[in-house]
Amino acid sequence: MSYQMPKGTQDILPKDISKWHQLEDLIKQFCYVYDYQEIRTPIFEHTNVFKRGNDSSDMVNKEMYTFTLDNSSTSLTLRPEGTAGVARSFVENKMYGYSDLPVKLYYVGPQFRHERPQKGRQRIFNQFGIEVLGAKNPLLDVETIALGWSFVSALGLKDMKVLINTLGDDETRSAYRIALQNHFKNDIENMCGDCKRRYHQNPLRILDCKVDHELEIMKTAPKMSDYLTADSKAYFQQVLAGLDALDIPYEIDDRLVRGLDYYTHTVFEVVSVNEQMGSQSTVFAGGRYDGLVEYFGGPEMSGIGWAMGLERLILACEGEGIELGEDAALDAYVLCSNENLSLQAFKALTMIRAGGYRSDMDYLNRSFKAQFKSVDRKHATFAILIDEKVLEDGTITVKKIADKSQLIVKLEDVVDALDQMFEDDHDHHEE
Ligand code: ATP
Ligand code: MG
Questions:
Q1: Which of 160, 282, 310 to mutate to test the pocket of ligand 1 (most atoms within 8 A of CB)?
Q2: Which of 41, 189, 202, 296 has its CA 20 to 30 A from that of 19?
Q3: Are residues 352 and 391 in the same domain?
Q4: Which of 22, 63, 37, 38 is nearest to 313 (CA)?
Q5: For the segment 201-259, what is each residue's pLDDT rounded down to a tens digit?
Q6: Relative to the alpha carbon of 309, which ligand is closest?
Q7: Do residues 58 and 163 share a domain?
Q8: Backbone phi and psi for residue 264, each to the nearest 5 degrees, phi listed first
Q9: CA distances from 60 to 108, 196, 208, 407 (A)
């Protein structure tokens, strides 16, 4: 019997973890500077947090991991996205009553979707997302895009493009929905099953179809921009003016409708145009939503947010030759010439660690030569050599690998010696 992880999942191994740490550190820094605070919501929620009435999205209809335990009638779902849980928490914890609105939140963590695994598409993947709840101001739409844009720019990504569109207000979408139904009326019979469902539930989503998108009838579909109310148009113009002011380049894509039903006004996708990305090229995407806070029993309040797939972000970095993370070297590796001295070595190691130095020793009683190989492999700055002398006069040798200089010190003075040698090294570099 052998065991393999489920399809579409991954182990993030120690050799790759420094990439993730680098991303997580940068996320913290950016959210700190932009004044967004972290929220951690449950990994599973009641199913109706995600499945809200007549939702037409694939994610809700086909991709959710939903389960009911034998002794319960409660249906639970592993979260497929972050926004719903955050909005639920915003209402449950009465954050709408905070004196400083909007509430600006971010999250990082796994999401679960049952889709066909391929490059850039997994069943468990990690998202960094932000949500701003409780204010409707085009500058916030700009701020959220700017946060994501400067984040990917800070990583060095250059092949990135902002695609943006507006879905307008309710009035806009009602008029547009009717126009789309009229347009597709005679052809819907020949379109895919999903489109047939969307035709009734939410015809806007037909435009997002990955099966039928080459059909002629798709290309001649009416444009949302012709149905925008004056208010919706003005709102969108202000968002675009904000992006212009910050020199964030964008392309208006009037076919962009996004996968979830709750969006209104601004929607956007930031894609990598790097050829290695294939069809999974959207790195982060989101938009403004109304009605979500109300759905969970809160007041009528607007929100805006996006989510970034971190695996896709890493692929985008790889595509552009950007190396993430680095394996920090050891400060010191402790060697002993004979296994009878291992307790002395262990004592020295413990003192070195208490001194804050990243350090390790051999636990396999290997030969001195083999231990020296570990010094190399772990890129240790110092080797701490312990031999019979430690029993004779209590001394050990602290050896700097780079220039082979060394100090002979009492075992209990090992941290002082390291402090001294690191300081000399530092001074040396500053000269
Ligand atoms: P797609 O059209 O690629 O299915 P989506 O519209 O379902 O994307 P969102 O729900 O907006 O995606 O999620 C935001 C981001 O999360 C995506 O832009 C992508 O980077 C990432 N993402 C979504 N689904 C997956 C997945 N199955 N595997 C890896 N990353 C994903
Ligand atoms: Mg999807």
A1: 282
A2: 41
A3: yes
A4: 22
A5: 888 888 888 888 888 888 899 998 999 999 999 999 999 999 999 999 999 998 898 76
A6: 1
A7: yes
A8: -140, 160
A9: 21, 17, 15, 66
